[in-house]
Amino acid sequence: MEETFVHVAKEITSAAGIQSGANLQFLWDPSYQELTIHEILVQRGAERMNRLEPGRFKIIQQETDLDRQIYNGTLSAVLFLEDIRLGDKIEYSYTLRGSNPSLKGRFSETFMAGAGVAVQRRRLRVLWPKDRRLDYSLHGLTIEPELRTHESVTEYVWDMHNLPPVAMEDQLPSWFTPYPWIQMSDYTNWADVVTWASGLFTNTDLDSPEMKMEMANLRHPGANAKETVQSALEFVQKDIRYLGIEFGPNSYHPNAPSTVLHQRFGDCKDKALLLSSLLQGMGYNATPVLVATALGPVLPKLLPAPTDFDHAIVQVVLDGTTYWLDPTRSYQHGPIAQRYLPGYAFGLLVRPGEQALTPIPPPGGDTAETTTIEAFKVGGQKMPATLSVTSTYKGFDAEWMRAVLNVEGRDRLGKSYLNDYAQRYPGIEPTAELVVNDSTDSDTLILRHAYTITNFWMLSPDKQTYRCEFYALGIHSWIMKPTTAIRSMPLGISFPRRRLIETRIELPREFKASDYTNTIAGPAAELNISREVRGPNISLKYDYRTLTDVIPVPFLAKHLASLNQMEAELGYQLKWQNLDAVAGTSQFNWPVFLLATAYAAVFIAGAGMVCRHQCKLVSAAAAAAPPPMDHNSTGLGGWLVAVGIGRFVGLIGILIIIWKSLGSFSLWKWHSLTSPDGMAYQPFWAPLLVSELLGNLSLLILELFVLMLFFQRRRIFPRWFIFLLALSAFLVVTDGIAALSFIKNPSTTMTEKTTENIIRIMIGCIIWIPYMLKSRRVQITFTR
Residue 719: how many CB atoms within 10 A of its CB? Predict the structure, then answer.
C-alpha cells in the first residue's frame, strides 16, 4: 500500500505568520485514503505543549472547484490553534495511506522543493521496492538524492538546507512553475502510460439500446462525413452538460457512454469517451486524447505519467485530414474545421500501439479575433454626437462572448459596454438595445449597439478651445502590463489574439489633419496604426496581434517599451477654437496690419521709382520727336471723360472691397478661418485672404497713380492704365478660380457672381486697351 508520511516544523516570526500558520489543514480523499495525524506540538521557549485534540477538529468537504462544475469529494480536517504567539514553534506530522485504484498500483508524484517563505530544512525520503524501476527528474534544482540500498527497498533522500523564499511574480506562463520541484514516476515510457489509459477508456456497450438510438438520431439523410461528425460533436457539447464527480476511481476512470447518455452529464473524459464511441460506432476513425492544458509545451520534458494530464479531447481522421475536437466546449458553432482548440502542443492518443506523444497543431492566427467598427457622427461645439458600434467575434472570441451572454444576459452586457464608453464620454446614453446576431453556420457572433453623446466637445480649462478624443479602448484592455516589471521569471501573454478597431469619424467641417501610418513591433506583440483623412471624414485603424505566448526575461524591457509606445498611439484628439472666447479678445489684427502697411510702402516706393524713370525716358524721347498737335482733339474730352469717371468709380470700388474685407481680418475672425482649431478653418483661407488683401492694395495704389497721371496728362498714362487693366483682369480671374476650386460645393450665386466679374473685366480690357494703343486723342492729349 502506498504511504506518505509528512513531518512539518515551522516558527512564527511575524504577525502575518500567526494569521496563516496557526490554522492547520489536512486533506484526504476518503474513498481510497486514510489519514492519521500523529502529533501536533507547540513549543514556547523550553515548554512543549500537546495540541492534538481530536474533538477540536472540524471536518469540511471543501469543494474548491465548484465554479468549474467539478466535485472531487476531498475532505479537510481543520484545526484552529489557540493562543499562538510570535516566536512559537509549531510541529506536526501525519500519514496518508492508500492509492487511487484507477492507477492499479502504479506510482507518479511531484514534490515541491521550495516555498514562498524561507525554509531552513526540507527533507524528502522515498522508500521504493528494490525490484521495481523508479525514475526521477529535477526541475529548478540540481541536488541529487542520496541513494541507500536496504534488504528489499531503495532509499532516496533529498536533504536540502537554507532554501531561500521564492517571490511569486504575476502573469507567468501556464507551464512555468516558479518553485523548484521533483517529479517521480515508475512508468517506463509513454507507451506504458497508453497501456494504462487504454484499460480505462474502454467501451463495451456500443450495442446498448441507448447508444444505438443516439447513433440513429445522428445519421441525417444526405449528410456527409464532416456534417455527421459535427452533429455528434454538437450533441455531446450541448446536450451533455459538463459535471465532474471525481471521487476516487472517477478521477481517472471515465463512466460508460451509456451511463453518460442516461444521466446526461459528464466530465471531460466522460464526454471524450462518449463522442469517440459514437463516432466509432458510426464507422469513423475517432480516438480519445489526453492533454495537459497548462503543461502542453513542456510535456515532452516530463517523465511519462498519468498525472501529467488534466483534460481529454478527441482526434478524428476523415479522408486523411485530422481534426482535434473538444467535446467540453459548449459555445462553439460552425464546421469542425473552424472549431477553436487551445495550444495544447502535445497529446497522448489512447489506443493500443501508441508509443509517443503526438504533436497538436497550434491554433491559427485568426482563431481568436475581434473586429470593431465605431462610427461617430460629430456635431458642432455644443451639439451632441452619435456613435454606432458593430463588433464581430470569431473563433475563441465568439465562444467567449457566447459564454458572457449566457452568464450575464444581454441587458447586463449592454450596461457593461455603456460603462466602458462612459470612461471616455461621461455624457453617453444608449439609443437602442444591444442587438445580437449569432451565426450557426460559422463560429462568428456580431454585436451592435448605438449611443448619443452630449457634451462631446469638452471645453479646455482656459476656455480657449474645445477638444474631442477617440480612443481604442478595446485594444488597451489587451495591452496588459505586469505588476512586476523587474523580473526573474518569464512573462506569459494570451496567444493567439487579434483585435482590430476602425473608428470612422464624420465631422461638421474639415480639420487640419493628415494621413499617417505606423507599425510598433515588439518581441511579443505588434500594432499597426493608420489614419486616413478625406475632407471632413477621418478613419482611424488599429490592428493589434500577439506573436507568441511567452516573453523570456532578456526581452522583457523591450516588450514593456513597445507596450508604452502602443498605448501612446491609441488616442487621437481634435481641437476646435472656442469662438466665444476669441470674440471677446482684441479685434485688431496687428500682424496683418503691419504686413499690409509694409507691402503698401514697398509698392508705393517701387511704383514711384518706375514712374520717375519712365517719365525721364519719355521726356528725352519727346525732345527728340515732339508729339503731333491737333487742337480740335486736345484735352480730356471725348471717350477720355469716360476713362476719368471710370477711374474714380474704380477707386471707390476698390475702397469698398477693402472695407468689406476688413471683417475677415479682425482677430477673432482671422483665427477662426486660419487657425487649425478655428471654427471655420480651411487650409487655403490664409493664403487666399492675404493674396486678396495685397492684390486690392496694389490696385488701390495703381488707381491713385493712374488718376494722378491722367490729370497731369503724362505720356506714360496709357501704359500704366493698360497695366492696371491687365493686373485687374489677372487678379479677378485667379481669385475667382482659386475660390471656386478651394471651396467645396460653392453656391450658385457665388459661381454666377464670379463669372459676371470675369466677363466684365475682360470686356473692359477688350475695349480700353486697343483704345489706349490706337486713339489719336490719347496720343495728342497725353504728351507731358
Answer: 15
Helices assigned H by DSSP within 572-684: 579-583, 590-624, 639-661, 667-674
Question: Which pLDDT tens digit goes with each residue over 254-277?
Answer: 989 999 999 999 999 999 999 999
Q: Which residues pair with 94 in a beta bridge?
A: 6, 37
Between CA 47 and CA 56, with CA 51 as vertex, the angle to 5 degrees is 155
Residue (of 653, 654, 648) closest to 698 by Cα position: 654
Domains and CATH numbers, the chain: 3-164 (2.60.40.3140), 194-359 (3.10.620.30), 368-577 (2.60.120.1130), 585-781 (no CATH)
DSSP assigned state of 254? P
Rg, C-alpha atoms of the chain: 44
DSSP character for 433? -
| Collapsed DSSP state (helix, strand, coil) of residue 401 | helix
pTM: 0.74
Cβ atoms 424, 471 nearer than 8 A: yes
Residue 35, beta-bridge partner list:
96
Quote the longest CA-to-CA distance of the chain: 154
Closest CA to 290 of 219, 155, 196: 196
pLDDT in tens, 745-759: 666 776 778 788 788
Q: In whole angstroms, what is the distance from residue 504 CA to residue 538 CA?
A: 6
How far apart CA 287 and CA 283 sit, in angstroms, is 12
Which of 365, 433, 439 has its CA nearest to residue 399? 439
| Residue 54, pLDDT score | 86
- Where helices occur in 525-589 by DSSP H, the ranges are 556-569, 579-583
Grid coordinates standing for 407?
452568464
Q: What phi, psi does 468 have (nearest 5°)?
A: -135, 150
Question: Is 70 exceeded by the pLDDT of residue 64?
Answer: no
- Report whether the peptide linkage leading into residue 304 is cis, meaning its omega lies within 30 degrees of zero: no
Q: How confident is the model at residue 619 (pLDDT cuts 50, 70, 90)?
A: low
Burial of 178 (0-12, 13-18, 19+ CB in 10 A): middle
Question: How many Å apart are CA 762 and CA 678, to the nearest integer?
Answer: 37
